[in-house]
Amino acid sequence: MARIGLVAHDDKKDELVAWVLANRETLAAHDLWGTGTTGGRVIEGTGLSVTCLKSGPLGGDAQLGAMIAEGRLDVLIFFQDPLTALPHDVDVKALNRLATLYDTLFAINRATADAVLAAL
């Protein structure tokens, strides 16, 4: 069982929920974590169990980053919107940096999420 973090920028939340729903059976066998709003949307849209952290701008991105640094997260699925400015951009960059630094399986869109899930 992998420990999977789920997060999505506002304009990508519907896309992430649709991806999780399409992969519901596979993801049900894993331990899912999500930032507050994203995790809540995934629970509502799929019925899967997700441990919700704080909302991204309120520290959820930092919480996921800490989990990566502590070896408590195996995969990060982070559907990013490269066209929208974010007030918490520093947190997003830190999360990206930690996922890269700790060699975490890291997906930033549907295509890479499909590849990461297939690798599990």
Could you name the key traits of this structure?
48% helix; alpha/beta; 120 residues; 5 strands; five-stranded parallel sheet
Fold and architecture overview:
This protein has 120 residues and is an alpha/beta fold. It is built from six helices and five strands. The chain is 48% helix and 17% strand. A five-stranded parallel beta sheet has the order 3-2-1-4-5, sandwiched between helices. Helix 5 links the parallel strand 4 and strand 5. Helix 1 packs across helix 3 and helix 4 packs parallel to helix 5.
Counting helices, strands and paired strands, the structural category is alpha/beta
Biggest beta sheet attributes: 5 strands, parallel
Query: What is the molecular shape?
Result: globular
Query: How far apart lie the N and C ends?
Result: 9 Å
The tally of helices reads 6
Mean pLDDT: 95
H/E order of the elements?
Answer: EHHEHEHEHEH
**Proportion of residues in helical segments:** 40-55%
Low-confidence stretches: none
Q: Strand share of the residues?
A: 15-25%
The total of beta strands comes to: 5
The value of Rg in angstroms is 13 Å
Strand order of the largest sheet: 3-2-1-4-5
How would the blueprint of this fold be written?
Blueprint: E1 3-8, H1 13-22, H2 24-27, E2 31-34, H3 36-46, E3 51-52, H4 60-69, E4 75-79, H5 89-101, E5 105-107, H6 110-119
Parallel strand pairs: 1-2, 1-4, 2-3, 4-5
